[in-house]
Prior knowledge:
The protein is of the alpha/beta class. The protein has helices at 18-28, 46-57, 71-79, 93-101, 113-121, 132-135, 137-147, 163-168, 183-187, 191-203, and strands at residues 9-13, 35-40, 63-66, 84-86, 105-107, 109-110, 127-129, 152-155, 173-176. The protein is built from ten helices and nine strands. α1 (18-28) packs across α10 (191-203). The chain starts with 8 loop residues before the first strand and ends with a helix.
Amino acid sequence: xxxxxxxxxxxxxxxxxxxxAHAIAKAIEGLxxxxxxxxxxxxxxxxxxxxxxxxxxxxxxxxxxxxxxxLKDEIDAVDANAKFLxxxxxxxxxxxxxxxxxxxxxxxxxxxxxEVLQMLNYKADIIKIFPAxxxxxxxxxxxxGPLGKIPLMAVGGISSxxxxxxxxxxxxxxxxxxxxxxxxxxxxxxxxxxxxxLIDIIEKS
Length: 205
């Protein structure tokens, strides 16, 4: 899969129960052209989450792994059928090469222009800028002055209230974690309210 079909928004699932993650997947149904779903590898039983969610939703929703910090994390995620790999840190060339062999999208983290260029030279598909809120929206525009148009993902401190300004300044993709939903809606597994929060993200972009 190429990035042309990669959803604009990725919902980050970190340390939620499986039932909570399942409710979020249900909320994404019908909006899957807009939203992918990331299970962080530091969530207990993350590979099982990825595997089981893919069994039920994988034909509709793009489900991948986040907080992929090393080759072991990567292999575990790919074995669980993760369709993409995200990290807040750089990927080694071996990690990116392995993902390409498996037809899995790579989204390593970077922050400085040097790190971004290194990941581009390694042929990463998308570059995650983290924490985006610290860098600020204009950083995305400024990075692309010397480096050209780059597929950048803004992650860290993003919510429906500020997502639009990051997109306007050159972020092509957005990752949203705790800022996506009200905590009580997750705890209550309230699918209609979770879906409305997703719609709010789209409408405010």
